[in-house]
Write a sequence for this structure.
């Protein structure tokens, strides 16, 4: 057997370079698009050296914060529809634990990300080393064990030859349509530099394609029987539709069989907004159209969704007591949720098989007409609240107006991105997808700070697109340094920062559940003694971005045109209304006190208890 002597780090890098994947258009590309790296004593000497020698084949992009660069990797993978993956590497200690949050984002959203962190010495002879956290009763534990809760594959390499077994498993886990998620590799400082005679064939080029598992024939027959008997069938479209490349199959299936489609946050832009079967956004961040349809549906085909509580209204939204759910998902865990009739299979292939077996069957026109009327009514509502205010109005612009302004000028190159806070509800309702796969709202983990880092990753993945980031002031202040990353690496994005005085949407929840405003808006915190207004445009300019502050929707529209023409990241800042939100969502269960001195809290608790009467147990 022919061998080559390499360090553990060199072998890791060479193996990653050898992996290729089939893209959505059928072309072949490197599976690993690059590495986000912040070097420290745990990874600079061995892995950093290996990456420097391979910089032409596996480029390294310098992040500013480990969490941010890993979040950029999550957004990159989503934009690439799980067909290309980024690596994020850090030193041991705080660099590693900074990435745990990003790993949680990847895990909850079923997205691939390879995390490679330095680790304590396997020999333990120098212990305790700088940044090492010691566990008195278990010396095998390091801070990297914290990744076990938020990764699909976890391994600590203690001998170089372990890579031969570990790396293929890590790659296959990240590419598995059912078990997809982040993988973690820990590299102890000494092991990363140790050499081994690796088999040459271990580094042979390998081209990966995403598996498309087929449905069990008996389960498929049962699903067909349920659909044929439906009077008011409904499709709930999740993010799995994007990863299966099933958008066209979904649209054709719905049109042929006359079944309305409603979208989750992750599933948005699986369908054009003007498709005749489009029923709108469902759930807590959804609208009245989709939620009304869900309330009447008797058979629900849930395609590629993990049925988050924001989708199901904490399982109150499907009010028909006779409703049956069919779970079409590659992951058995998701397909069987809430006693669904499981179709554990690929979305694109199974929709085609279902359509063939259903033949010419269609649901009644009265049901699709009902859906169209609901959607028309809701669009009229959105048009009203998203319209630009009359000239001379003294009211602050709203989030809905901000989204509406950019939506009106969006074209085939526009990609919208948001996360957490108030924007998910606004973009999920007010952003009208004019082309497919043009939207990313991180709401699986609802991670504040994802916006600018995710924008960097999306801009890297989609260089021909105008990546537009909608970001609140709270998220911006939490994590913004990847504006600088995007500037120095030449990955342009347009960031719209809306300053509503703090954490306004959680202030809304606090007030809506009977509580007094406290600690969320700056003005409502009595410990704040110097409420300074942040100059977001000046801050962004200090990081090399072009920027400006606007005060009206008309100014925003003009600034957006300047931003599109700019040659680098452009930040537009504006003050927005703290209390104006798009309405139309559903019940959401949160913990409201049973005992309180405030009558408003007790009233809110009573409303919660009443709302839970609609909660499905099975």
């Amino acid at each position: 057997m022919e061998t080559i002597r390499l360090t553990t780090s060199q072998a890791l890098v060479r193996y990653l370079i050898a992996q290729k994947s089939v893209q959505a258009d059928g072309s072949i590309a490197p599976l690993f698009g690059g590495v986000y790296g912040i070097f420290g004593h745990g990874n600079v000497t061995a892995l950093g050296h290996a990456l420097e020698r391979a910089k032409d084949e596996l480029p390294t992009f310098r992040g500013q914060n480990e969490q941010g660069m890993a979040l950029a990797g999550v957004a990159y993978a989503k934009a690439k529809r799980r067909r290309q993956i980024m690596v994020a590497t850090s030193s041991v200690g705080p660099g590693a634990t900074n990435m745990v949050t990003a790993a949680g984002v990847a895990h909850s959203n079923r997205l691939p990300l390879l995390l490679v962190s330095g680790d304590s010495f396997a020999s333990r002879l120098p212990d305790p080393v700088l940044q090492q956290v010691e566990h008195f009763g278990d010396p095998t534990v390091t801070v990297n064990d914290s990744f076990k809760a938020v990764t699909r594959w976890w391994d600590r390499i203690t001998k170089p030859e372990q890579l031969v077994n570990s790396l293929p498993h890590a790659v296959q886990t990240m590419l598995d349509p059912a078990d997809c998620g982040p993988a973690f590799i820990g590299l102890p400082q000494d092991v990363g530099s140790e050499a081994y005679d690796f088999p040459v064939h271990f580094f042979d080029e390998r081209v990966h394609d995403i598996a498309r598992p087929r449905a069990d024939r008996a389960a498929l027959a049962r699903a067909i029987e349920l659909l044929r008997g439906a009077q008011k069938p409904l499709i709930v479209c999740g993010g799995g539709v994007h990863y299966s490349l099933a958008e066209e199959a979904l649209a054709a299936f719905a049109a042929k069989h006359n079944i309305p489609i409603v979208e989750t946050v992750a599933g948005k832009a699986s369908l054009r907004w003007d498709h005749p079967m489009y029923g709108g956004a469902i759930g807590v961040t959804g609208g009245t159209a989709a939620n009304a349809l869900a309330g009447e549906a008797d058979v629900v085909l849930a395609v590629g969704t993990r049925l988050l509580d924001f989708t199901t209204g904490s399982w109150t939204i499907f009010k028909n007591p006779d409703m049956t759910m069919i779970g079409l998902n590659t992951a058995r865990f998701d397909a069987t949720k809430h006693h669904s009739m499981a179709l554990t299979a690929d979305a694109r292939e199974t929709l085609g098989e279902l359509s063939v077996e259903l033949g010419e069957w269609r649901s009644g026109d009265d049901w699709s007409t009902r859906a169209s009327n609901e959607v028309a009514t809701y669009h009229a509502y959105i048009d009203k609240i998203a319209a630009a205010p009359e000239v001379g109005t003294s009211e602050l612009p709203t989030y809905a107006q901000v989204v509406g302004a950019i939506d009106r000028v969006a074209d085939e190159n526009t990609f919208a991105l948001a996360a957490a806070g108030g924007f998910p509800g606004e973009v999920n309702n007010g952003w009208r997808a004019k082309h497919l796969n043009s939207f990313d709202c991180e709401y699986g983990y609802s991670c504040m700070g994802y916006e600018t880092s995710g924008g960097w990753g999306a801009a890297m993945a989609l260089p021909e697109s105008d990546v537009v980031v909608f970001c609140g002031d709270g998220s911006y202040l939490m994590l913004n340094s990847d504006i600088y990353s995007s500037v120095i690496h030449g990955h342009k994005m347009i960031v719209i920062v809306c300053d509503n005085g703090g954490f306004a949407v959680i202030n809304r929840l606090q007030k809506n559940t009977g509580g007094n405003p406290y600690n969320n808006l700056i003005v409502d915190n009595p410990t704040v003694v110097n409420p300074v207004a942040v100059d977001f445009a000046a801050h962004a300019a200090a990081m090399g971005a072009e920027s400006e502050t606007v005060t009206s929707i008309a100014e925003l529209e003009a600034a957006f045109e300047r931003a599109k023409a700019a040659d680098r990241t452009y930040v537009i800042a504006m003050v927005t209304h703290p209390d104006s939100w798009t309405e139309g969502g559903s019940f959401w269960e949160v913990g409201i006190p049973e005992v309180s001195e405030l009558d408003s809290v007790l009233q809110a608790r009573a409303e919660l208890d009443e709302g839970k009467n609609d909660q499905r147990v099975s």
